[in-house]
């Protein structure tokens, strides 16, 4: 029983703000949210170009609950509030009793692990906070969303690095399409911009150092001057509903989710493989029953690493054949950075808004295109796309786990 | 600060409990504290008064009983003078 599945609500806690339409507007204008940011202690900390958020949950999370929620869980709960408000679903009562919640995240409560280690190594004590374990665990965000909104269906967590929330949305989409659920909250969250996390990210060799033209110029996907990616943080949650459920309550769809494909490179922990990415894209199109010629826009995974962006372009060429030359491709990570476990959800939402508004956000900082990325990567300036009907969003993770979502204009 | 004053301040400032709900006869359950919150509160008390609450003595129900337990543990601490 395959049913149509609509995206009916968006909740944002992102480097560009909490209002999805305003965030999209800023992205369309090519505005970066990346700033030089200090993490860590005065003595040991460091300055990095980051897309960090000045985040407080405010009244949305009661104090006694916020105490037991890590930053990433709090962001997810706030994003879920936003998604329900956007969908016009009441937060109280049993409107979500039969819903599911699907959250993607890379790690979990990283600052809580950091604090526990600080107690042990710096204070030389074994007295860590009793709440550490339920705050660190990766599935805490999904649990808090379920508890906050009375969701009694499955609460699932997908930890697949940079593909986490593309997968969480894809799996929620399948659950609704195939009749297991009528409605789901799906998305991702990540909060790793603390020094305990930064010291290990610095050693992966994937982060870009500050560009001479400043923090905003540092994330440069597809550009010859790209040197790596810029980390961001935040959470994006979506309301995903069956056509019948959305229609019954008079909801206005933002976009339709029509396909999801996942694949593995079976190759290397850090080096991507075009063939694995091709399989995800083609699998998603097959799942959607969409011809590749119908696709007009690709929100690329492209993080700004020298290898990764060129491999993705190669994969797009392999997947789309001659039609690759007609695609508009952009990497919005040039402006919002790489939100790791939340990035797939943010980019899926941006893709949905691009379809709704028929406007394609640009790749910022693409001033000197790499000949190895010789497709239309929408440099610098957003563009109107009056005939845009179908778009895909790619997410490719460390570990070689790939996911592609296919969205259609509603 | 007395253990009772510390308890009430912590419940209001850290755990967001309404001040008017607090009194020596109020039970921690009535104040909305679940088991995890209670464990965290005991941890706060141990830290503040430098005592260890033995598991078999963490059986108080009301704020007054909790304060009395802490006061007793503080009194029986070996003097470091």
CATH overall fold name of chain B: Non-ribosomal Peptide Synthetase Peptidyl Carrier Protein, Chain A
Number of strands of chain B: 0
CATH class placement of chain B: Mainly Alpha
CATH superfamily of chain B: ACP-like
User: For the report, how would you describe the main beta sheet of chain A?
Assistant: 10 strands, mixed
- Beta-strand content estimate of chain B: under 5%
Largest interface, chains and sizes: A-B, 10 and 13 residues
* Mean pLDDT, all residues of chain B: 90
In helices, the fraction of residues of chain A equals 25-40%
CATH-assigned fold name of the largest domain in chain A: Peroxisomal Thiolase, Chain A, domain 1
Share in helix of chain B: 40-55%
Describe the structure.
The complex is a heterodimer of chains A (410) and B (81). In chain A, 33% of the residues lie in helices and 20% in strands. Chain A has 13 helices and 14 strands. In chain A, the strands form 3 sheets. In chain A, strands 5-4-6-7-1-8-14-13-9-10 form a 10-stranded mixed β-sheet, with helices on both faces. In chain A, strands 2-3 form a two-stranded antiparallel ribbon. A two-stranded antiparallel sheet of chain A has the order 11-12. In chain A, helix 3 crosses helix 6 and helix 7 packs across helix 13. Chain B is mainly α. Chain B has one domain: Orthogonal Bundle (Non-ribosomal Peptide Synthetase Peptidyl Carrier Protein, Chain A). Chain B is built from 3 helices and no strands. The longest helix of chain B is centred in the middle third of the chain and has 15 residues. Chain B is globular and about 35 Å long. The mean pLDDT of chain B is 90. The chains are: A alpha/beta (410), B mainly alpha (81).
